[in-house]
Amino acid sequence: MPPKSKTVITVISKIGQRPAGTPACLVMIYGLDLGKKYSLDKATVIIGRSAKSDIQVDQESVSRSHAKITNDGQKVLIRDLGSTNGTYVNDEPVEEKILRDGDFIKIGRTIFKFLSGGNIENAYHEEIYRLTTVDGLTQVYNKRYFMETLEREISRSRRYGRDLSLMIYDIDHFKNINDSFGHLAGDYILKGMSEVVKVHIRREDFLARYGGEEFAIILPEIDHARAMMMGEKVRKMVQEHVFNFEGTAIPVTVSVGVATLDDSVSEGLDFIKLADRHLYAAKEAGRNRVDG
Question: In 10 A of CB 36, how many CB atoms?
Fold first, then answer.
């Protein structure tokens, strides 16, 4: 594994920001106990792999005593305990940081969301609802919501006689990336790639993590020619982006399959199979290309 970059110590509040006090909790938004709530009503809470930890995260990438959260009634502070893989807040490595409502905390491969304030129960239930539509790691839509949306878009396209295209793409040789650089690097690339693509699609386009390293984009009112152009745009932007994980540049490419709604498609699964066939054709042809 490449050496860790120097951590950032951020303990000074920005102007206009107020530190969070009690009540407060963590919600697991990516990990084995998805949606579980951990109250932070104790003065000190230890997160780690050890069974003696207040919040146990049983993963190899997590140290036995990984991080400590303290709550003095005025502020909630997280401190890394010299962990092997570091503690991250909003994707930044930290040694110590005052937490604020809505912060994302990454411990190993597990991600928590920090909630605080007087309406904490409402905030928790809103977060649970959000988890039914959004993937916790990449913060794009999840497979369940993608399938529901695809069926709606097919019906709408047929009703109004409008074009509809679907693009499915996945990361080439993703297993090799995990094997060479570790699963934390793999998670970093999945999240980073989602952010790269998300800012370059239209508001009406629908980006989702379909599974593992596979993603899909629903393209309403886009014909086949323009969908192919969009596929090439995604392929090129991923290839040209520099994914730098803890000081190591990792080259990333994707293969893309494109399909456009036609009479052979009767439901969402048919549409996905059509796009998938083109994705596999792109891979068979050498990867890092678009087929449609």
Answer: 13
